[in-house]
Amino acid sequence: MLSVATWNINSVRLRIEQVQRMLREQSPDVLCLQEIKCQESQFPAQALADMGYIHQAVHGQKGYHGVATVSRVPLREITRFDWQDNGEARHVGVELTEGEGKGLVIENVYIPAGGDIPDRELNPKFGQKLDFLERMTRWSDTLGRPTLLVGDFNIAPLECDVYDHKALLKVVSHTPLEVETLGKLRDAHGWVDLGRHFIPAPERNYSWWSYRSYWRQKDHGRRLDHMWASPDLAPQASTHRFVEETRRWEQPSDHIPLITEFSL
Amino acid sequence: MLSVATWNINSVRLRIEQVQRMLREQSPDVLCLQEIKCQESQFPAQALADMGYIHQAVHGQKGYHGVATVSRVPLREITRFDWQDNGEARHVGVELTEGEGKGLVIENVYIPAGGDIPDRELNPKFGQKLDFLERMTRWSDTLGRPTLLVGDFNIAPLECDVYDHKALLKVVSHTPLEVETLGKLRDAHGWVDLGRHFIPAPERNYSWWSYRSYWRQKDHGRRLDHMWASPDLAPQASTHRFVEETRRWEQPSDHIPLITEFSL
DNA sequence: GCCCTGGTCG
DNA sequence: CGACCAGGGC
Predict the structure, then answer these.
(1) Where are the transmembrane segments (chains A, B) (predicted)?
(2) Which strand (E) or helix (H) includes residue B114?
(3) Stretch B121-149: mean pLDDT
């Protein structure tokens, strides 16, 4: 048994107590964080180590972005890709080195949000997002081991992954071009979307609600966070859950944690 | 019986729950706030009205300074002086219009801090502080009714009003020039310093501790907040207390409330 | 909306 | 140290 969580925490320093609470209540073996928004030197390593998460791979930067994978089972950092080649900290890859999960690779990624306008010409950030996905797609070809790819993908691929499919067709995160580009990444390695494997369409299944306005009343969510298993790993996934309650905590992240359990 | 509190709250929006807690626990009839740090439109009027403090005189500005006097006994705003003539919101004067305290005037003031260097030439803010005090001194001559003058004076007049008299002689808030200038204001109307009337020198008696460094461990406080009664009002003051516990609350103001009870 | 960076202020 | 502001990001 091995359980892995992913959570875009939107500042790990501000929400370290919420991380600790989630770890106490959900008890995953491994936690992948995105948007830690700090440098490695500022990462709350001790607070997490005190809870047993002594194995840590932190790829941070000042102020923005940043990812970290912490674990109570041994791991070692194996990669730290910069698919944009611009110095942003959006990926860290680890390998579990002992126990049932030995050899499992966990890729933790924060895909660019892509700006407001879904047009390469008008909005360079949208192009960067697509380029990022295409580079990940080429990288996918090279993988040869059981791998879990998790994080904030900033794309809600299915109609039922958003509260209003038609309205969001022109909104970055749900445009046909993004969905198609993400689909190529998925197909490049036969990735299995565990969120929809365990909670099949058309069931409502969101991981993010804007801070703005009436997200709670209207349930205007999107499924932007994902856990994808390589074809050789997917059969071992035994449960998968979205921990929606954290979105109702005080001063929450706008994203919620996802957790998968594996029988390994 | 009438009780009046004064508290430099250092952002009333951020600390409205602490204000409510203090009001519940101390139950003053009137509360004078300084450094509300908001415009009148942003003042948490409803939260205070809900607790019975429905009579309010708010003199705010954007971001800095600002004073407000709220009460559960009827009052009317009578003055709103700008002794510096620069648009800063540092004073509001009210008159109680009913009940035992009818006719009592309460002047709520936030005297300028005065900058870092205690020299008019090198630091214009120090001059502005002295000018502010001198204009208040001239204003004091004109008063003819029982009056309570309260607020953050930003001066600790006595040796025992600071944790280290000698060290602070050259620190703005305790320089001989400030103490002398404040003394002239006091003498201009025969104001009675209730803090020292009820807690005589040389007893330790602080109302402010810096946010910086080890204020709690070292008790490096100063008495910057004051309640002064006009000679005709002072005999009615029956008790006076410093509510030090608020400084140990979570995310506190750097100042504590002072409360005087009057037998009226 | 909320969190970052930096600035000013006390 | 911790308020505020403005500007940038998502």
Answers:
(1) none
(2) none
(3) 94
Q: Tell me whether residue B50 is annotated as binding.
A: no
The question of whether B110 is a catalytic residue gets the answer yes
Of residues 73 to 112 in chain B, which lie within 7 A of strand C by their beta carbon?
112
B212 touches strand D (CB under 7 A): yes
CATH (domain of A173): 3.60.10.10
Q: If we measure between CA atoms, which residue out of A230, A117, A227 comes closest to residue A177?
A: A117
Are B229 and B191 contacting, i.e. CB atoms less than 8 angstroms apart?
A: yes
Task: Note the pLDDT tens digit of each residue in B90-120.
Answer: 999 999 999 999 999 999 999 999 999 999 9
- The two tokens of residue B39 are 């415009």
User: What is the residue whose two structure tokens read 């295409």?
Assistant: A134
Looking at the structure of chain A, the number of domains it has is 1
Mean pLDDT for the stretch of residues B191-216 = 92
pLDDT grade for A104, boundaries at 50, 70 and 90 = very high
Q: To which H or E segment does residue A55 belong?
A: strand A55-59
Smallest CA–C1' separation from B35: which nucleotide? D3
Residues of chain A with pLDDT > 90, as a percent, come to: 96
Cβ neighbour number for residue B109 with a 10 Å cutoff:
23
Secondary structure class of A18 (helix, strand, coil): helix
Give the CA-to-C1' distance from A39 to C5 in angstroms: 14
Where does the pLDDT of residue A218 fall: very low under 50, low under 70, confident under 90, or very high at 90 and above? Answer: confident
Q: B119, B154, B161: which is closest to B136 by C-alpha?
A: B154
DSSP string, A182-251: HHHHHHHHT-EEHHHHHS-TTS---SEE-SSTTHHHHT-EE--EEEEE-TTTGGGEEEEEE-GGGGGSSS
Strands B75-79 and A30-34: unpaired
Task: Give the closest residue to B225 by CA, choosing from B126, B130, B150.
Answer: B150
- In the residue annotation, B220 being an active-site residue is answered as no
Domain extent, residue A253, equals 2-262
Asked whether A24 and A72 are in contact (CB, 8 A), the reply is no
Identified catalytic residue from B91, B110, B161, B189: B110
Measure Cα distances from B197 to B191, B238, B260 in Å: 11, 10, 11
Q: Determine if residue A59 is labeled as part of a ligand binding site.
A: no
Q: Concatenate the DSSP letters of all residues of A210-224 into one string.
A: -SSTTHHHHT-EE--
Nucleotide nearest B215, from its CA to each C1': D1
**Does the pLDDT at position B233 exceed 80?**
yes
Query: Is the CB of residue A112 inside 7 Å of nucleic acid strand D?
Result: yes
Residue A215, pLDDT > 80, answer no
- Which nucleotides of strand C lie under 7 Å from a protein CB? 1-6, 9-10
C1' of D3 to CA of A11 (Å): 21
What pLDDT is recorded for position B212?
Answer: 82
Reference B150, options B37, B47, B60, B240; nearest CA is B240
